[in-house]
Design a protein that fits this description.
The chain has 79 residues and is an alpha+beta fold. The chain is built from three helices and three strands, in the order E-H-H-E-E-H. The longest helix has 16 residues.
């Protein structure tokens, strides 16, 4: 089983989450595929913010570069 090499968290307004997901999940799926990362969105009831968690598997040779790219692109969408 692969372990996670790196995990990054971004806090953003909940109202921006839809822009990251895109129509039928198209944007978030494309970001994950293009960067080789996993992007999870965590929202709690009663909280105006959401947490976006970006992770990459340790076996990915360019995990750090992928994480940088994914983080930059997510920030451009939600912040």
């Amino acid at each position: 089983m692969a372990t996670l090499d790196d995990t990054r968290k971004i806090t953003c307004p909940r109202r921006r989450v839809g822009a990251l997901i895109g129509p039928r999940g198209a944007i978030i799926r494309a970001l994950q595929q293009e960067t080789g990362t996993r992007i999870d969105i965590r929202q709690q009831d009663g909280n105006d913010d959401a947490t976006i968690v970006i992770s990459a598997e340790a076996i990915h040779a360019l995990a750090s570069d992928s994480m940088d790219e994914a983080e930059s692109r997510v920030r451009a969408i939600v912040l």
